[in-house]
């Protein structure tokens, strides 16, 4: 027992480090040194994460529980949505421009200014038709209905009251497909003339005389005046002197 005694101020276990960790007193509590080191490391890591999160807060970044920075609203590079509109090569080569200047691929028109040759008809084609080469294509003008008739002819007749050229009116009416509405041309012209001046009524009389036989027939004119006599009660509402005029 005397041999184990030593003049050193610490015992053998304390001098050699012992099996127990060194303790430090903080706020009256004894805490092992290893716990303090771990606490400092954790605190430093939290400060770093807090600093990074506050810096990237304006860009929609957030920090997960694992400490990994996550960006909201940004599609990951591996997401298929991010690759749909990406024209760059997957191998990392090229500048992302369309191939052949936009003239390559299926269903494209070709480069601007490109002139194509006339396509020759293949006689051996099963869809080939002998009458196809002799076809004559004409522009089809649909006949005017009651709704579009008045909207189309009213400006023409009103302009006629300004220039007084019956030939111009005749050419414009020939370009239209009046169909069964031919008899309505004199009806509309007389109705507009009743609301206008005496000179307009005289010009309308001349217009109907020039249109008869070219644009409208005598039968159409007779039908139109019969229609005017039937609509006379309604014309009186807008033009009280319509019966005398």
Report what the structure shows.
The chain has a domain of 93 residues: Serine Threonine Protein Phosphatase 5, Tetratricopeptide repeat. Helices cover 42% and strands 6% of the residues. Strands 1-2 form a two-stranded antiparallel sheet. The N and C termini lie far apart (151 Å). The N terminus is likely disordered. One of its GO terms (biological process) is negative regulation of DNA-templated transcription. Keywords: Cytoplasm, Nucleus, Repeat, RNA-binding. One of its GO terms (cellular component) is cytosol. Pfam families: MA3.
- CATH T-level topology of the domain at 146-238: Serine Threonine Protein Phosphatase 5, Tetratricopeptide repeat
**Under the CATH scheme, which class of the domain at 146-238?**
Mainly Alpha
CATH architecture of the domain at 146-238: Alpha Horseshoe
Please describe the biggest sheet, giving its number of strands, its sense, and whether it closes into a barrel: 2 strands, antiparallel
Quick check: average pLDDT?
75
Count of individual beta strands: 4
**Ends apart, CA distance between termini:** 151 Å
Radius of gyration: 49 Å
The succession of helices and strands, N to C, reads HEEHEEHHHHHHH
Describe the strand arrangement of the main beta sheet, using strand numbers: 1-2
Structural class by SSE content: mainly alpha
Percent in helix:
40-55%
How many alpha or pi helices?
Answer: 9
pLDDT < 50 runs, ≥5 residues: 1-21, 61-65
Shape: elongated
Keywords: Cytoplasm, Nucleus, Repeat, RNA-binding
Main location: cytoplasm
Family: Belongs to the PDCD4 family.
GO molecular function: RNA binding
């Amino acid at each position: 027992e005397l041999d184990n005694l030593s003049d050193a101020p610490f015992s053998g276990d304390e001098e050699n480090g012992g099996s127990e960790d060194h303790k430090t007193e903080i706020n009256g509590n004894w805490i092992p040194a290893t716990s303090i080191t771990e606490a400092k490391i954790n605190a430093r890591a939290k400060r770093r994460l807090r600093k990074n999160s506050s810096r990237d807060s304006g860009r929609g970044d957030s920090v997960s529980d694992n400490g990994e920075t996550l960006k909201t609203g940004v599609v990951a590079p591996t997401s298929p949505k991010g690759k749909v509109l990406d024209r760059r090569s997957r191998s990392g080569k090229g500048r992302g421009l369309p191939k052949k200047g936009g003239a390559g691929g299926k269903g494209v028109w070709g480069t601007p200014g490109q002139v194509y040759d006339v396509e020759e008809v293949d006689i051996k084609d099963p869809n080939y038709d002998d009458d196809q080469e002799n076809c004559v294509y004409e522009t089809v003008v649909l006949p005017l209905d009651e709704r579009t008739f008045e909207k189309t002819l009213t400006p023409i007749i009103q302009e006629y009251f300004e220039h007084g050229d019956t030939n111009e009116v005749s050419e414009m009416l020939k370009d239209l497909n009046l169909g069964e509405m031919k008899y309505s041309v004199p009806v509309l012209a007389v109705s507009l003339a009743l609301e206008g001046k005496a000179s307009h009524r005289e010009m309308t009389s001349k217009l109907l005389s020039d249109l008869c036989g070219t644009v409208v027939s005598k039968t159409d004119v007779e039908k139109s005046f019969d229609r005017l006599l039937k609509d006379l009660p309604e014309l009186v509402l807008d033009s009280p002197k319509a019966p005398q005029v």
